[in-house]
Predict the 3D structure of the following.
Amino acid sequence: MNENSMGQRDRRVRTIADLARLAGVSPGTVSRALAGKSLVNDDTRRRIQALADEHGFRPNQMASRLRTRRTGVIGIVVPLGHERRQHLSDPFFMTMLGHLADALTENGYDVMLSRIIPDAEDWLDRVVDSGMVDGVLLIGQSNQYDAIERVARRYRPLVAWGVMLPDQVHAAVGTDNRAGGRLAGERLIARGCRRIAFLGDVSAPEIRQRHDGVAEAIAAAGVAAQLIQLPTHLASDVMEQEVSTHIDALLERGGGIMPIDGIVAASDMIAMTAVRALADRSIRVPDDLPVIGYDDLPLAAQAVPRITTIRQDIAAGAKAMVEALFARIAGSDTGSVILDPELIARDSA
C-alpha cells in the first residue's frame, strides 16, 4: 500500500460517521456497538470493533462524557490550611494517594490531584463546581472543617479522610484518633512515664483528638502525671528545627537533665525526627526516653530503632473512602466509617 492510500485510509476513520460508512451501518449503530450496548447483535458488534481496531479508531471521549454528563474523573484534594509548607511527597500523603489512585483507576476512573492552600472561603466550591470531576476525595480536613461541612450540604459525592464529630454532614473515614491517643498514653504510663510530652499541632482536629486521648489515659490511670503540649508541624522543612528547639529548651529547663520521661508524637515522621534529635544529644531511645509515633508508615519499621506506633489501616481506609464515594455517586447516602487503631509495639517504646 502506498503512502497516499494509507493517508486516505486514515482520513476515512476519523469519526463515527467514517467508520459507519466503512461498516455499512448507521452512525448510531456504530456508537452503540462501541459502547457495548445490547441493542446491537454480537456479530455486528464484533465486526465494528474489529474495523475500529484495524483502523486505530478511538471514540471521542470528551463528546461521550458531555452526553452522559460524567467526566470519568475523581478529584483527590489535599487541603493545607494549617500546614502550608507540607508537600505531597510527605510519606503519609504518598501512601494514602497510592491506595486511592489504585482503587479509582481499577474502577475505570482517572484522577485529578490538587494540593490546595485555602486562600478564600470558596476554595472547595471552586473544585466541586468546576465541572471537571464526578466526585471529590479529601485527604485530611486540615483546619477547613467548617468549609467542608458547608459544601457537603449541597454536594453529596464528597468523602474526607479525617474525624467524625457529632451531627457531621460530610462523610468521613478515619481512625478513632482519641482511642489511638489513649493507647499511646497507656503504653507510656505502663512503662512508668509520668512526664509526657506531646509533639504535634493541635489546631488540626485529628491531632487534637490524639492529644486528648493521651490526656484521657493519664486521667484514667489515676497517677500523678502531666502532659506537655509542644507545637510541632508536619512540614518537613520546619519539623526538624521545631523538634530540636523543643528538646534544647527542655534540657535547658532541666539544667542538662531531660525533665520529661516519654514522648508521644502526632505522626511517625515527627517520632523519627525526635529520635534522631535525641540521639544527636546522646539521649538514648528507649532506654533514656521512650518515643511513640502515629500512622505505622512503612518507614516506621525500617527506622533505627524501629518505631513503636499507633497503626492506622491506610489501605482499608482508602478502600472505604472509594466505596463510600461510589455509593454517593450512585445516589446512596452513605455514612462515616471509624476504624479501630492498633498499638504496634517495636523498639522505641
